[in-house]
Input
Amino acid sequence: MEVTKEKVIRILKDHPQFQRDRHGSLYDRGSADSYYRRNPSPHWYPLGTGNGERITDLTVEEIEEYYAGYEYNEKFGDKKDWG
Output
């Protein structure tokens, strides 16, 4: 059985850190870091943002997912106006 990128993505989407609409997911944290003008720092929260352990020991795929959120917000998103 051949393992394709599409199959891997389908499998990963079942894990909470890859659920883009989930508060605390990798994508969510990446986009939030961009929104608040923070430097990128790949991480996620299994129990939601700020709840429980902050996970920073990530796989390559997890880091890429975080950066997907960060880069999307950099290109299309909003930025926090601190003034």
In short: The radius of gyration is 13 Å. The CA atoms of residues 46 and 73 lie 22 Å apart. The helical segments are 5-12, 26-35, 60-76. The chain is about 40% helix and 0% strand.
